[in-house]
Design a protein that fits this description.
13 strands, alpha+beta, 6-stranded mixed β-sheet, disordered N terminus, lipid metabolism, Acyl-CoA_Oxase/DH_mid-dom_sf, pristanoyl-CoA oxidase activity, 50% helix, binds flavin-adenine dinucleotide, globular, 2 domains, 3-stranded antiparallel β-sheet, FAD binding
Length: 769
C-alpha cells in the first residue's frame, strides 16, 4: 500500500437503516439477521446486535477509562507561531497574563499545527490560490477549484518523519493536511475528499488485490472519482435505491441500469464535469435474485477527452446555495456494461458463472471496515465544522472588542463586548469552539485506534463493542457539532450587525459551507437515531443483566441507574453549579432519565401497535432525539474534562479552560432544564435560577480573556479571510478599503443611460459666494 495511504476519510453515503425489523428495544440478542445485511456495509451492522456476544460484555466499573492527553509531552516550539500585530485589540490582550501561544498548544498538537501552518504558508504564496475580489460565475469557480485541486495534489505536505510513522499517525497527519485545506478552501477540500481520499479508502476497505492498480492510479494523479449513492427519490433510505447491476454470465459483465429519473444518482460531487470514474452503489442481481446494495467501480468518462462513454447520461445539477466550486452531478445508466472484476469483492463476490459467494470469516474486521467506511467522512466533517465555528467566533469576538456603541455618559462609548446581552449571545459559542476543538481532536484518535485495532491480526478484547461505541459517539457528535456550528455562524453574523452581512466578512461563505454538513454523510435527524438505538440496547442490557457494553466508558454509569435516578440535588449557592463534576452528574441523571422515558414510550407504542417501525418513529420527539443530543454533549464534555485535567497544563491556562468548560456545560444544560424538573431531579431546589446566574457570572469572567482566547484558537488572517476579523484590529481601515476598492465602487454604471431622467429641474446647489 502506498505510504501516503489515507485511511481516515470515507464518503460511504448514508447507508442508514430505516427498517422496521431493526428496532431493538426489547430483546437485543434474539433478533440476529442473516449475514448478507452485514456485507452490505450499512449502518445496520451497528444498529443490529449482530456481533453482540453475551460472554464478552464488559462489566464495567463506573470509573471511566482515563483518556490520556496524547501530546502534552511533545516539544512545544512557540516560535512556529507568528506574533500578532500590535493594534487596538491590545487593550483586551493586555488584560491577561497567560501566553496565548501556550494555550494554542492545548488546542492543537504542535506537530499537527506545524503541518497546517506549512500548508497555509504554501497556499498563500501560490498565485493559483489567490482569492478573487469579485463573485465569479459558477462555471469559473468550478474551473478554478479543479485547477487548485490538481495543484494541491502535487505538493508534498506529509512531514519527512511521516514515512516512518505508524499507519494511525500517518492518517492523523493526513487529517491535519485536509483540515488545513478545508479551513481555507472548502470546495477544493471536498473535491479532494470525495474524489481521492474517500474513493481510495473505500477501495482499500471493500476492494481486494484486483483493485490495487486503481489505488495506484489515484496516487499517480491519473484518476479523479466520485461516490454515487444518493438517488433523486432516495437518500437516507439506501435500502430502497433502485439502480441495478445485473450479472451477465455470457460476457462476464455487470449491466448497469437506471430504471427511471427517480433512480438517477444525484448530488454526487465531482460527477458534474470532472471525474472519470465513479464508485457506484447499486443493487446486485445474479440469476434473477437481488443480493442488496454493493459497490462497483465504474469508468464513466474518457480521461483523454472528458467526454462520457456511450450508455450514460451525465450532467451537472446546477447552481447551489454555496460550494459552487464543486461540480455536483447526476447520472443515469442505460444497459451500461462493466467487467465482473469491478465489483468491490472483499466481503462477497460473483463467480464467472454467476454464483453469488459470500466470505464471512472475520466479522471483527468487517465491522472495523464498516466503521471506517461510514465514519471517516463524518470525523472529517466534525473537524471542518469545529474549525468553521472557530472562524465565526473569532470574527465576532474581535469585532465586538473593536466596535463601540452607546455608553454611560457622553463621549464615553463602550465596546459591544462589554454588554452582557452580547456576551450571553456569543460566549456560549466561543466556549463551544474550545470544547469541541479538543473533543474532536481526541475522539479522532480513539476512532483511529479502533480502526487500527480492527486491522491487526491479534484478537483484541472488546473490539466489537469498542467499534459500536465509537459509531454511537460519532453518530451523535457529527449532528451536535454541525448544528452548533450552523447556529453559531448565524449568531455571529447578527452580532456583527449590518457589516456582518458583507461578503468580505466571510460569514456568508461559512454559513453556506456548513449548511449541507447537516444533511450529507448521514442526515443529522436520521443519524442520531443510531446513537439512541445503541443507548437503548445498553439500557435493555443493564435492566436484564446489570451490564453494559461500553469499553470507552461513555455510558458505563448506567450500571448505577437506580442510584442515579433516586438521587436529588442539594444546591444552595451559585458556586454549587459552577462545577464541572456537578454538570457531569446532571448529564448522567438526564441521560438515564431520558433512556427510561424513551424505553417506556417505545414499549408503550409497541404494545399498542405491535409494530416496531411505529414504536421507533413515535418515540423520537421529546425522547430519543433529545437523548442522543444530551449524550453527545455529555461525551464532548467528558473528553474535554479528561484533557484539561492533565497536570501539565499550567494554572493560568487551566483557569481559562475550566471557565469555558463550565459555560459550555451550563448553557447546554440550560436547554434541558425542563427534563430535570419533569423528572424531579431538582427536588424544588433553585436549579434554574442558579444555572442562569452562573452563566451570567461566567460571561463576565470570560469577557476579559475572550480576545486572547480567540487568538489562541484562530488561524492566520490569510485563512480567516475576513475584513472584520483581522488580528491587527484595523477594523474601520479594512471596511473603508472594502467600500472604496470593490470593483466599480465609484464608477458610473455602464447602464446609466437606461435610468437617466430627462427634464429634471436644476436643483444643483450653488454657492452664494
Ligand atoms: C452539498 C451536497 C453534497 C453531496 N454530495 C454527495 C455525494 O458526493 N454523493 C452522494 O451520493 N450524495 C451526496 N449528497 C446527498 C446527501 O448525501 C443526501 O442529501 C443525504 O443523504 C440526505 O438524503 P436526502 O437528501 O434524500 O434526504 P431524505 O432522506 O429524503 O430526508 C429529507 C428529510 O426527511 C427527514 N427524514 C428522513 N427519514 C426520516 C425518519 N425516518 N424520521 C424522521 N425524519 C426523517 C430527514 O431528517 C430530512 O430532514 C450531497 C448533498 C449535498 C447537499
Amino acid at each position: 500500500m502506498n505510504p501516503d495511504d489515507p485511511r481516515f476519510v470515507n464518503w460511504a453515503q448514508n447507508l442508514l437503516d430505516q427498517d422496521d425489523e431493526n428496532l431493538e428495544f426489547e430483546e437485543s440478542d434474539d433478533d440476529f439477521r442473516d449475514e448478507k445485511d452485514v456485507k452490505e456495509f450499512s449502518e445496520e451492522s451497528f444498529d443490529e446486535d449482530y456481533f453482540q456476544n453475551e460472554g464478552s460484555s464488559s462489566e464495567n466499573s463506573e470509573d471511566e477509562p482515563e483518556k490520556v492527553a496524547f501530546f502534552q509531552d511533545l516539544p512545544m516550539d512557540t516560535s512556529i507561531i507568528d506574533d500578532l500585530p500590535s493594534g487596538p485589540l491590545d487593550a483586551y490582550r493586555k488584560r491577561v497574563n497567560f501566553d496565548w501561544k501556550e494555550l494554542k498548544f492545548v488546542f492543537e498538537r504542535p506537530d499537527l499545527l506545524k503541518i497546517k501552518i506549512n500548508v497555509w504558508n504554501t497556499l498563500e504564496k501560490d498565485p493559483l490560490f489567490q482569492r478573487s475580489e469579485e463573485e465569479l460565475p459558477s462555471e469559473e469557480q468550478k474551473r478554478i477549484a479543479a485547477l487548485q485541486l490538481e495543484q494541491f495534489r502535487k505538493y508534498k505536505f506529509m512531514p519527512t518523519n511521516g514515512q516512518k510513522a505508524t499507519v494511525k499517525e500517518r492518517a492523523r497527519y493526513l487529517m491535519a493536511i485536509n483540515e488545513a485545506l478545508a479551513a481555507s478552501y472548502p470546495d477544493v477540500s471536498v473535491k479532494q475528499a470525495i474524489g481521492i481520499l474517500l474513493f481510495q479508502n473505500t477501495l482499500s476497505t471493500l476492494g481486494t488485490e484486483r483493485h490495487k492498480h486503481i489505488i495506484e492510479a489515484i496516487w499517480n494523479r491519473q484518476i479523479l472519482s466520485a461516490l454515487a449513492l444518493t438517488e433523486v427519490a432516495h437518500g437516507s433510505d439506501a435500502r430502497n435505491m433502485r439502480t441495478t447491476a445485473t450479472y451477465d454470465k455470457e460476457t462476464e459483465e455487470f449491466v448497469i441500469n437506471t430504471p427511471d429519473f427517480k433512480a438517477a444518482k444525484c448530488w454526487v460531487g465531482n460527477l458534474g464535469k470532472t471525474c472519470t470514474m465513479v464508485l457506484l452503489f447499486a443493487q446486485l442481481y445474479t440469476n434473477g435474485q437481488c443480493h442488496g446494495l454493493h459497490a462497483f467501480v465504474v469508468p464513466i468518462r474518457d480521461p483523454k477527452t472528458l467526454l462520457p462513454y456511450p450508455g450514460i447520461i451525465v450532467g451537472d445539477i446546477g447552481e447551489k446555495i454555496g460550494l459552487n466550486g464543486i461540480d455536483n452531478g447526476f447520472i443515469m445508466f442505460q444497459g451500461y456494461r462493466i467487467p465482473r472484476e469491478n465489483l468491490l469483492n472483499r466481503t462477497a463476490d460473483v463467480t464467472p458463472d454467476g454464483e453469488y459467494e459470500s466470505s464471512f470469516s472475520e466479522p471483527g474486521k468487517i465491522l472495523g471496515a464498516a466503521l471506517e467506511n461510514l465514519s471517516a467522512g463524518r470525523v472529517g466533517i466534525m473537524q471542518e465544522c469545529a474549525n468553521n465555528l472557530i472562524s465565526a467566533v473569532t470574527i465576532a469576538v474581535r469585532y465586538a472588542a473593536l466596535r463601540t456603541q452607546f455608553g454611560p455618559s457622553t463621549g464615553k462609548e463602550l465596546p459591544i463586548l462589554e454588554y452582557q446581552l452580547h456576551q450571553w449571545r456569543l460566549f456560549p459559542y466561543l466556549s463551544a469552539a474550545g470544547v469541541i476543538k479538543i473533543f474532536v481532536a481526541d475522539v479522532a484518535m480513539d476512532y483511529l485506534n479502533a480502526v487500527e485495532m480492527s486491522n491487526t491480526d491479534t484478537a483484541i478484547d472488546n473490539l466489537r463493542e469498542t467499534i459500536s461505541e465509537i459509531h454511537a459517539i460519532i453518530s451523535a457528535s457529527k449532528p451536535l457539532i454541525s448544528w452548533t456550528c450552523r447556529d453559531a455562524i448565524q449568531e455571529c453574523r447578527e452580532a456583527c450587525g449590518g457589516h456582518g452581512y458583507l461578503k468580505a466578512t466571510r460569514l456568508g461563505e461559512l454559513r453556506n459551507t456548513v449548511d449541507p454538513c447537516v444533511s450529507y454523510e448521514g442526515d443529522n435527524n436520521v443519524l442520531v437515531q443510531q446513537t439512541s438505538n445503541w443507548l437503548l440496547r445498553q439500557w435493555v442490557s443493564v435492566l436484564k443483566t446489570g451490564t453494559v457494553q461500553s469499553p470507552l466508558g461513555t455510558c458505563s454509569f448506567l450500571i448505577k441507574h437506580g442510584e442515579i435516578l433516586s438521587s436529588k440535588l442539594q444546591l444552595t449557592k451559585v458556586e454549587d453549579v459552577k462545577n464541572l463534576d456537578f454538570i457531569m452528574d446532571c448529564y448522567r441523571w438526564l441521560i438515564t432519565y431520558l433512556l427510561q422515558i424513551t424505553h417506556e414510550k417505545r414499549t408503550r407504542v409497541f404494545e399498542a401497535t405491535q409494530c416496531k417501525f411505529t414504536a421507533r418513529n413515535n418515540s423520537q420527539v421529546y425522547a430519543a432525539a433529545v437523548l442522543s443530543k444530551a449524550y453527545g454533549e455529555y461525551v464532548a464534555l467528558s473528553y474535554y474534562q479528561a484533557r484539561i485535567s492533565q497536570p501539565k497544563i499550567k494554572k493560568d491556562l487551566k483557569f481559562v479552560l475550566v471557565n469555558i468548560g463550565l459555560l459550555y456545560g451550563l448553557s447546554t444544560l440550560d436547554k434541558h432544564l425542563v427534563y430535570l424538573y419533569q423528572g424531579r431531579y431538582d427536588n424544588n431546589q433553585p436549579l434554574a435560577q442558579l444555572v442562569k446566574d452562573a452563566i451570567l457570572d461566567l460571561c463576565g469572567v470570560i469577557k476579559d480573556f475572550a480576545v486572547p482566547l480567540v487568538d489562541s484558537l484562530a488561524p492566520s488572517d490569510f485563512v480567516l479571510n475576513s475584513i472584520l476579523g483581522r488580528a491587527d484590529g484595523k477594523l474601520y481601515e479594512s471596511i473603508q478599503a472594502e467600500f472604496f476598492n470593490n470593483p466599480n465602487a465609484m464608477s458610473r454604471p455602464k447602464w446609466w443611460r437606461e435610468i437617466k431622467v430627462d427634464n429634471v429641474p436644476n436643483l444643483k446647489i450653488t454657492s452664494k459666494l
